Amino acid sequence: MINVIVELSKYVILTLMIVYTFHCFYMVHRQDEDEKNESLRRQIMLIFFMDFTAFLVIYLKTDDFKVITFYLEMMAYFAAIQILYRIFYKKASLLLLNNMCMLLSVGFIMLCRLDVQTAVKQLVIVAGASVVALVIPVMIRKMKFLKNLTWLYAGIGIVLLGAVFVLAQTSYGAKLSLMGFQPSEAIKITFVFFMAALLSGDMSLKKLIQGTVVAGLHVGILVLSRDLGSAVIFFVAYLVMIYVSTKKVIYLGIGVGGGCAASVIAYYLFGHVRQRVSAWKNPMAVYQNEGYQIVQSLFAIGTGSWFGMGLCQGSPEKIPIVKNDFIFSAICEEMGGIFAICLILVCMSFFLMIVNISLQIKKPFYKLIALGLGTEYAFQVFLTIGGAAKFIPLTGVTLPLVSYGGSSVLSTILMIAIIQGLYILREDEDEEIERLRREAVQRARERAKIQRREKY
Questions:
Q1: How far, in Å, CA of 380 to CA of 374, rounded?
Q2: What is the value of pTM for the model shown?
């Protein structure tokens, strides 16, 4: 009987995910507020039913009461975050909030299926980060001096990355963390703030050189620390922000060319880069060593096919570091390729929402922040999924909000809170424009009345 429930559940979960993804894009074309609110409510219900079905299956397969306890704690968190945002930030983007809850749900499901204790740790970090994040939107609205802290952002980033390079122990071939925290995740935010503050004023060659030097220091330290994934994310964010600020294709071309040249140089200078490229080109040839991870990942993706094997029916634990770098492979194996495609589309909806906010903000500083953070998010998703699917060499980064990783989920939730603040700021700008328009219309009417009285 349990096997029948497990088999049926994977189709139920897949259907709920497909409908949720549809609503993500359906709302973009809807102008009626009642329709949008109804879609948002349906999304919340879809998340609830998906979580209920998934955790019921995990409990039936494991017979571990901790799964029920975790499920109740998780649902309490989702209810709290939904209610608090509606109380304190009535102008917040509920679609952005729903997408965050959906991605967290998928991550919690897979982590709980792999190891309940890991899922509990992740939930504690997420809850703590969300408490801190609740004050971020109001800080973005009120703290106008943030754009004046240009070199403070640069100093914080370089000092922390330098400390990691000098003091951190090597873990999985790279220097990543100090005292259990990975500073590069938080520095992704300060780096974007630095670039936005530097480039938001009058653009000059001097500022371009300054930004390039600081970005080069960030990327260079990360490469020396062997944190290649973060180095690539920083470089792409720098490149996009420079191009948007200057609107000169030549800078984009120089940046891409320089990045390609740097990649070739890194290949010949660093042995760990050659190992990852070798594993990417022909993982079966080095299966016993550096190719083992990618081969197991590909086996998992292929085994899952379109509909997946069902929760607790696969063997994702055979993939090394599955909870961190290869959780996408575990999702493909047990939930299926169609579910994985929907997950990618939800991430794309997340990114498009951020880009839309960036396009509508009037002030350059805030516009560049939204664009930079959105670029970092989208490229991290690309690196994680591309590495797991052998589309690109492995870079060792996590899937935001889905993979296990305290530093990653903490910085991502803070990033979302910043985006929420920018969304609210955009709403404030729209209200200010509308207020000025009404005042202009009112003044025009008063002048017309005065002219009519003078005429008679």
A1: 10
A2: 0.90
